[in-house]
């Protein structure tokens, strides 16, 4: 049987095929009955699965990250596609083609690293350039960066997503700094590179993105500041010259304030022009990526509109191919 991928599914499809169990939760409904909430994945994306009238025996028969054969059908729910699962069975990994599930694009990652290196090399400030180079010279860190997601569910939530988001934001920083001469372009550019690097420790790598214990306890913002301190120490040891204290504080501030508001997890709100700019550029890139994903994955039949998205509080216009009349 030819495999179909998640992005090819339509409502009312009858399915009997293998997925990766990216997540599973045993829950109780209002009547006290139990069901399993599944996050099923393949190389094209993820799909929510609902296994009703389940019990601990079924729940314990497989683990997160296992391959599972699921039988059931798809349906629309709250504007998205989900699968009503009638049967789930663990599958031996030897029976699975890994290419059906690997979402990491190694060639794309290498190209992005090369571009990040070019942008860092373009910095005129030697301290900032050396800090960026120190990160890229760290092979263990670089391998994790290549495969890390930027989030569990929101924007760039796939292996390599963090690197894509980072380089896109660096490109935006470079563009905007050229338009506003009052900005320190090097600080903004390195801030774009640094802002989310703590996510390589906050999130577990691979296809099944989840929070690590350190990520839950500390969070990527504080982890990022700690990583920055380590690299500054390396630069000072190798160069024999201290990074100016005020420059260090400004770099720390860029990382600490990039979420923009205290209620959004920033320990500080942006207090420098570069921090304010970084926050808005970060938000712009994340929002565009998130909205694009919603549009691309929407299965609504309502013409040019997606289903209502509760997180955004709106529907979104779905661009269509131009016609002779348009």
| CATH class descriptor of the largest domain | Mainly Alpha
Instruction: Report the biggest beta sheet as strand number plus sense, adding barrel if it closes.
Output: 5 strands, mixed, barrel
Radius of gyration: 22 Å
Average pLDDT figure: 89
The low-confidence runs, each spanning 5 or more residues with pLDDT under 50, are: 321-326
Approximately how much helix is present in the residues?
A: 40-55%
CATH architecture of the largest domain: Orthogonal Bundle
Spatial order of strands in the largest sheet? 1-2-3-5-4
Quaternary? single chain
Q: What is the count of DSSP helices, taking H or I runs of 4+ residues? A: 11
Account of the protein in words:
The chain has 326 residues and is an alpha+beta fold. It has 2 domains: 6-100, Beta Barrel (OB fold (Dihydrolipoamide Acetyltransferase, E2P)); 106-290, Hypothetical protein af1432, CATH 1.10.3210. It has 11 helices and 5 strands, in the order E-E-E-H-E-E-H-H-H-H-H-H-H-H-H-H. The chain has helices spanning 56-59, 106-121, 126-136, 139-147, 161-179, 185-194, 199-202, 213-217, 220-239, 245-256, 273-297; strands at 14-28, 34-42, 45-51, 67-77, 80-91. The protein has a 5-stranded mixed β-barrel. Helix 2 (106-121) runs parallel beside helix 5 (161-179) and helix 9 runs antiparallel to helix 10. The longest helix has 25 residues, at 273-297. The radius of gyration is 22 Å and the shape is elongated. The relative contact order is 0.10. Residues 321-326 have low confidence and may be disordered.
